[in-house]
Each structure stands twice: as structure tokens, then as C-alpha cells.
Design brief:
11% strand, alpha/beta, Rossmann fold, 3 domains, 503 residues, 20 helices, flat, 5-stranded parallel sheet, 62% helix, two-stranded antiparallel ribbon
């Protein structure tokens, strides 16, 4: 199955494993909850989907690479204890708590996450001395004398033997205790993840036109050459930072992430071409509706590869702006909720100013604690972290305003005035981004009449996390107009297929 199907299957498995009956017992007994084993080529996205699932289900996540563990670190260290058997004192061996098991109990204690994922990567690369303990753990959920707490699901991952010389084939006894999920590379399935995580538009444009370059592993006389989903994502982060600093994007940088010579060289050539498109089209002018006749003429005469690049550039510019205003939207919502709570608690109009500041301080501490717990549980996305941090900064600023005000009523009024100003600025920014989106629709409509370019633009708008959230929140006449056309087209296609089947 592809990576999206694997993610759905992991979520379904976790949901049925965590279900309990009216007596509080797991519907699937804990000992019968087979650990999941994700098996697929390196860099295909196995770790990424586990992180996404934990975030979406709001459960804890602890990850370990098993290649770094010995029997002692995984199982624990032995120690001697005196125990009585039938009235006779005997010295017996017990084990300290496994580092792995201890980390789970520590997370439960620190974050309150009673449910979570224990992710053991490279499980099929463990040492021969650790293998028996791993088999016991997979079957009985115990390392040494200590058991994984109920509600925590074991998910493992590994590469097929052809990709890793350290891989040890599991015997039938081990295989029969695992729920196998085989993952295959699939660019189409990876695209929604790529748009949600703002992969550089030059990479997406290139892969759209060269899908064979998405994933490749070759064994050559000079060693392994490869291009992977992980490599493209990491290269994307590097390119973004390099561009910000004005550093050149050249083949030596690309081959640090994409070692397949042919693919790396093709992308290097494409990036140069893409950079020329970026300088020519000036997407900021298009989004403000101020494109020139020369740009429109160039767009109309462009080949399909150039059109794809322009659409990706427009989307990237829109997506970056959507990300900023959506983050501000969610920050304002979080702060507004807290300010309402403080106002409700200050029911006495003559409350002492120190009390209002103290109440806001308490809310700030609670928000900080919530942030810390979620961060320790690995339950925060990159954007969620920014929202928490910006909310804390605003609350701290408002607490300082309250401290300097002459009384509680005046302090709240000053905070309200400042907050209303932020709301007005945000509303203006939302309207500005909406105009940019409508200008993008207008440009594509006027430049290209075939329809496939608009369909491509609509597809990536729908797939993108920020763009789809912005449109759901703010609406878009262009999106509504073309979405209706696409639905009609889909209905006609379905009718044609049904007629063909009947014939």
C-alpha cells in the first residue's frame, strides 16, 4: 500500500486497540494487540506518518532507534535481591527498569498521556543478543520484569534486507506476532504531505514533471545512489534557508541530499530554469493584480512545464501568506478565550488591580504548562508551537499593561483596546490575502483556457493544509466557481463510464 493508505491503517489499528467495553477492559485483549511492523524502503516516510498519527489522535509518542540499543539498555541491568520461598531465603536476579519502559512511564507522569505510541525503528537490525528480548517484548509487552502500560501501542519499522546489510530476517515465531504493513513509494500519495509541509515549489514542479525521480535506489560500481522522500524534504528545508541568505543553489548542495547522479543533475538544471521563471513572472505582482502585458503574453505562449512551475510559484507565495494569517487567527482565538475567562472571574468591578494581573498570570502559567506537556508528548506541530509561543508573548504583554493601570477596570479597557487593534489588523490582512487568491484565479483564467492548468491549481489548493483551511475560513469566489465546474466534470465522467460499462 502507499504511504497514505498505511497512515489510515495505522490510525484504524490504534483506534480499535484502544477501544474498551462497558467494564473498562480492552475489546481486543492487550496480549492480542499485535505490534504493527511498517516495512518499506528507507526515506519513504514511515517515521513521518507515525508523528502525524500521534498529533492527530492527540496521544503520546516515544521513539527509539533500536540499532543504538544493547541488551542492557533495552532490558535493564541485573541486580540481586533476597526473597523467601517456602520459608527459605534465596538470592534471585531481577532487573532495573528498561530505559525504554521507563521513558513511557515518565511521559505518562509528566504529560498525563495515558495513551500513546512506542515507536521502535530499525527493529529488524537489533543485535543477536537482543533478539530474544525483543521477541518477548513483542509478545508479552515486557522488558525484563517491567511491562508497557496498557493503552500504549507498539509500532515498529524496518527496511527490507536489500536496502540494509544489517537487517536480520525475522523467524516465523516473530513474524507471527506482528501486524505487517508493506509500504511502496508513490509520489501521488506523498503530494498531500508535501503541500501540507510546504515542500519547496521548485521540487514539486520538478517531480510533477519527472515522477520517476521521486524515489530511486541504484547499486553502482561507486556504491549506492538514491533519491528518497526524506531526501527531497530535507533538501527543501536547505534550499529555503539558502535562498533567504542568498547562497547559490548548485549541484554540490543537491547531491548532499539526492545522490542519484542523473536525478540530481536534472533537478539542478531545472532549478536554474525555475529561478529564471521566478525572476520573469514576479508572483508578487500577479497576486496584487498588477501583471504586465509582457508577463501575460509569456504565460500564454509557455509550454506545460513552465505553466506548472508558475502555478507552483503562485501557490507557494499564497501558502506562505496563508500560513502567517492562519497562525495569527488561531493565536487571537486562544488569547481571546483566556481574556474572556479573566473578565468573567473579575465579577467585582472594584477588584484590586493586582488581582486582575494575578488572574492573567495564572492563565499564563496554565498555558505554559499545557504547552510543556504537549511538547514533551510530541503532540505539537511546528505551527502549534508558534501559536503557543505567540499567545504567551501577548498574554505577558497584557499582564504588564494591567500591572501599570490605575485600577482593574482601566487595565481591562487598555487590554481590550490593544486587542481590538490586533483584530482590525488581522481582518485587513485576511482581506488582502483573499484578494491575492482571487487575482491568482484571474491570472490563470486569462492566461490559459485549456482548463487543465486550473484543475492543477484547484487540486493543490485543496491538498494544501493552509490553503484549504484559509478557503474554509474566509471563502473564495474563484474556488467556489471552479469547484462547481470540476464537480460537474466529475459527474459527466462518471456517467460516461457507466454508459461504457452498460455497453
Amino acid at each position: 500500500m502507499n504511504i497514505l493508505q498505511a497512515k489510515d491503517e495505522v490510525k484504524r489499528t490504534i483506534e480499535i486497540y484502544m477501544e474498551k467495553n462497558e467494564y473498562g477492559d480492552f475489546r481486543i485483549p492487550y496480549m492480542k494487540q499485535r505490534p504493527i511492523f511498517l516495512i518499506g524502503a528507507p526515506g519513504i516516510g514511515k517515521t513521518a506518518i507515525i508523528e502525524q498519527v500521534a498529533e492527530e489522535l492527540d496521544i503520546g509518542l516515544i521513539s527509539y532507534s533500536m540499532t543504538h540499543h544493547t541488551r542492557q539498555s533495552a532490558v535493564g541491568l541485573p541486580y540481586i535481591v533476597n526473597r523467601s520461598f517456602d520459608g527459605t531465603e534465596e538470592r534471585t536476579t531481577e532487573y532495573t527498569m528498561s530505559e525504554i519502559i521507563a521513558s513511557v512511564y515518565s511521559m505518562v507522569e509528566n504529560t498525563g498521556k495515558a495513551q500513546g505510541i512506542l515507536f521502535l525503528d530499525e527493529i529488524n537490525c537489533v543485535s543477536e543478543t537482543l533478539s530474544p528480548s525483543i521477541l518477548q517484548f513483542l509478545q508479552y509487552k515486557t522488558f525484563g520484569n517491567h511491562r508497557l502500560p496498557g493503552g500504549w501501542i507498539i509500532i515498529t519499522a524496518g527496511n527490507p534486507p536489500e536496502y540494509n546489510r544489517s537487517v536480520r530476517e525475522f523467524d516465523i515465531a516473530t513474524r507471527d506476532r506482528l501486524k505487517y504493513i508493506f509500504i511502496e513509494d508513490d509520489y501521488t500519495a506523498w503530494k498531500p504531505y508535501a503541500y501540507a509541509n510546504a515542500i519547496h515549489s521548485s521540487i514539486l514542479s520538478f517531480l510533477e514533471l519527472n515522477q520517476h525521480g521521486f524515489y530511486s535506489v541504484k547499486i553502482t560500481a561507486n556504491g549506492s545512489q538514491y533519491a528518497t522522500a526524506r531526501g527531497w524534504e530535507d533538501l527543501s528545508y536547505a534550499i529555503t534557508r539558502y535562498e533567504e541568505k542568498g547562497y547559490p543553489i548548485e549541484l554540490p548542495l543537491i547531491t548532499q541530499y539526492i545522490t542519484d547522479d542523473d536525478i540530481a543533475r536534472k533537478y539542478a538544471v531545472f532549478y536554474e530554469l525555475y529561478s529564471k521563471y521566478r525572476r520573469t513572472y514576479k508572483t508578487d505582482r500577479i497576486l496584487t493584480g498588477k501583471w504586465t502585458k509582457e508577463i501575460m503574453k509569456r504565460a500564454k505562449e509557455a509550454g506545460f512545464d513552465e505553466r506548472v512551475a508558475v502555478i507552483e510559484m503562485l501557490y507557494e507565495a499564497l501558502n506562505n501568506s496563508f500560513e502567517a494569517v492562519l497562525r495569527n487567527q488561531f493565536t487571537l482565538e486562544k488569547v481571546s478565550k483566556i481574556l474572556r475567562s479573566v473578565k468573567e472571574r473579575l465579577s467585582d468591578a472594584n477588584a484590586d488591580i493586582s488581582e486582575s494581573a494575578e488572574l492573567l498570570g495564572i492563565q499564563l502559567e496554565e498555558l505554559t504548562e499545557e504547552y510543556t506537556q504537549k511538547e514533551e508528548a510530541h503532540a505539537l506541530s511546528r505551527e502549534d508551537k508558534k501559536i503557543y509561543l505567540e499567545s504567551r508573548a501577548m498574554l505577558y504583554e497584557y499582564m504588564e499593561i494591567m500591572k501599570t493601570a490605575p485600577d482593574s477596570k482601566e487595565g481591562l479597557a487598555l487590554v481590550r483596546k490593544h486587542f481590538d487593534g490586533r483584530i482590525k489588523e488581522h481582518s485587513a490582512a485576511m482581506r488582502d490575502k483573499s484578494k491575492g487568491l482571487e487575482n491568482a484565479f484571474s491570472f490563470i483564467e486569462k492566461a490559459w483556457v485549456t482548463g487543465r492548468e486550473m484543475m492543477y491549481f484547484m487540486t493543490i489548493l485543496t491538498a494544501g493544509k493552509n490553503s484549504s483551511s484559509f478557503i474554509a475560513l474566509q471563502g473564495s469566489e474563484g474556488y467556489k466557481r471552479h469547484n462547481a465546474k470540476m464537480l460537474v466534470y466529475d459527474a459527466k465522467e462518471e456517467l460516461r463510464n457507466q454508459i461504457a460499462d452498460d455497453l
